[in-house]
Each structure stands twice: as C-alpha cells, then as structure tokens.
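Task card 7
Instruction: Convert sequence to structure tokens.
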Amino acid sequence: MTRTSTPKQVPTAGYLRRTSLRIIAAVVMASLSLLAGIVTPGTQAAAPTKQEIATSVSNATNAGVSMASANNPPTADVVQVASSAPTRAISETRSEADTPADPLAGWTAEQKVGQLFMVGVPVSGDQRASRKAVRAKHVGNIFLHGRTTAGIKPVRKIVDGYTGLVTKKRTRNTAMFVATDQEGGRVQVLRGKGFTDIPSAMTQSKWSKKKLRKNAKKWGEELSKAGVNLNLAPVTDVVTSAKSARKNGPIGVFERNYGYGKRSTWTHANAFSNGMRSSNVDVAIKHFPGLGRVKGNTDTTARVVDKVTRATKKDRQMTAFRKGINAGAPFVMMSSAVYAKIDAKNPAAFSKKTINKVLRKQLGFEGVVISDDLAAAKAVQKWKPSTRAVKFIQAGGDMVLVSADATVVAEMIDAVVAKAKKSPAFAEKVDAAVLRVLAAKERL
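Output:
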C-alpha cells in the first residue's frame, strides 16, 4: 500500500474523545449518504464501499483511535452532531435502522471477529481444522504454512479451495488475505516448478537496490500466480555484527538480516517490499520492535528479553522500522519478545505501550498490526489460547496469526466475541481493527 495519510479534520479534541467509533462512522456516513441521495429506508445492508471504509477510518483516527487509511482515501468534511447515546457492546447483528450507512451494518459479531484472524493452512498434510475455521468460525484470512516443493499449480489449487469458501454468510463476501513466508534462504515456504529459489537476506543485501527490487518483483509475480497476496516479509530486524549474528537465534543464525546494522537493513528491506508490492503482493515488515538483539528464538524459547532496544529516534531498530513505515509498509508484525527498556512486563504483542504509543503514535503507523504466531510459539504458552487473542486485540493489535496449530483458533475467536459482547470499550477496539483490515483489503 502506498502510505497515504487521511487528512486530519478535527472539530474539537474534547468532543471527539467523547464520541465513539460507531457513532462517528454512522453519523458521518448517514449525512454523506443523504446528501448524495442514496439512502433508501428498508434497503438491504450492502458490503462497505471503499469510500465508506475510508471515511469511517478517518473519523475514528481523529477521535483518538489510530486507524489504517484506505488506499487513496477521499476527503470528507467532518459532520459535527452532538449525541448523548451511550456506547454499547457489539451486538449479534446491527440493523440498518440503527445505523443507516454504517460500513459494518449487517455484520454479526462472529463475522467481524473472523476478519481479525489468519489461520494456518498446511501446504502438505491434514487441513481439516483450517477448513473448519473458515466454514464454522468465519475466519477471513489464511496463511500457507510448512514447506512444499510441489510448485505453483498445486499451491494454487489449495488456495482456490479456501477462497472458494468465501460467502456472504461466512465472510460477507469479503476477499481473503492469503499469506505465506517467502523471505528466501532457509525461510521459504513455497518451492518447486514456477518458484525461484530465493537467496537469503544476507545475500540479497549485497545486491544493488535496483537488482533486488527487480528480483523481488519477479518473486511477487510467482506468488500472485499461486494466489498469494500477502508475504509476511521482509525481516526489518537489525543485527549489529557478524559476531552477534552467531548468537542471535531467530534472525542472525539463519541469515535473515539485511546486513549488519547498516543502511542496507532498511534500504534493501524496502527494495524487497517495493518489488513485491509492484506485483500486487502486500508485505509485512517484522518483528517490531526488533529481534536482532536477542539470543533466544520466541518460537522455541519461553521468555525472550531484549535489554537494549529503546523507543528513541536514535535507536537503530526504531530507525529501520520508521523507514519501512515511511516507505508505505501496509502491515507490521509484532514480536513476542519482552523489551525491558520499553515495557518490561509484557511481550510486545501484548503491550499497549509498544503498539499504541510507540508504533502508532511515535512512528505514525496507520496500517494493520499482525501478531507473530500465537498458536504454538513457546514465548506465549504462559497464557491460554483464548487469553492470547484477547490480550493482542486489547493491546491494539488487528490480526491474530494462528499459523502452527489451527485447532486453537475456535477457542480464540469465541473468547474475542464474548469479550466484545460484554465490554463496550473492547467492542470499539474490535470495530476499529475490522475497519483497518477492510481498508487494507480494498487493494485486493
């Protein structure tokens, strides 16, 4: 996504802070619709349009909720209408009589929450749990998990089998994000006929930016042919030296880093991103605030702590992610490590300070915040699956990645739905996250 900020149109800070996301979206869109003469009482709720999503996202941002801007969002005047209506928890189905032009009108709680999950689909092996998640739990996004050398055609067959499950009842006919890990080197899910064997990021960092961008465009075209529209790459973690790389379990050991603490970390990560996006494949820079300074791997280690990284402009990790965000990264993946100098009590994925204060406000990120795997990663096993999902959304996250074990997704979704129905404040977070996801899906 080309990073386009929605114009900031703030009537008064006090007023907007008192106004909920749902009321703002409803009032603004109802007024615009009436002006355009398109509101007809009793008509069936339609899927949200690009303009409706963009306007809702814009006004929610102005109200103090950081939102993703839609691609090329239109400018709209803020309509000020005082309201004393109380905020309410998420309902089973909001009727059009309640919110005439609400982008989420007609969506059930389960349908909305389903958009906030990405379930792992094994590229080889049993897929029953994954299919059940889409069919029964309204999951709106999938992640191709594991390793395969079958080539493009068999992968495309798998993808089509899931995108074909999209219906109005399950997902409001909303397109899926189909993701995978196609970094290169030892982290490349898809291989075989039609797929290039991508070199490691360390090798890519030695190329010119032009060469890397050209090759990434080709790799993106291969993914696109297979039906993949989101690559959970590139790694934007800063590894400081060859010596430290040998002790850096998640990144340096596998040569997933773009050089050693130099400009190549962000210049080449951005070149990779630009090439992918020119092939209509979105990217997720990862793993914020960075895994380049830790020893343990969060996939296999219970508590991984970064004792160095700070939320300052001079910190290399912050610089690398800021550069990626400014270049238009549409997704940022959160780390599951703990950052002692930022929030010593919570993993970054569960930290309101890390997501809202540092990533959203300090770095200005307005896109989709996605977790690392919250299913089988050792770093999050301290919490029940249901608790992990709730804590991530509560902290300000948007999309829960459940990649390594699809059997836990039902428990996670049930917990988020139940919390949203009970808590008006949490329901607002769910709605805000859904609007960010829908805004990102306008590119599909």
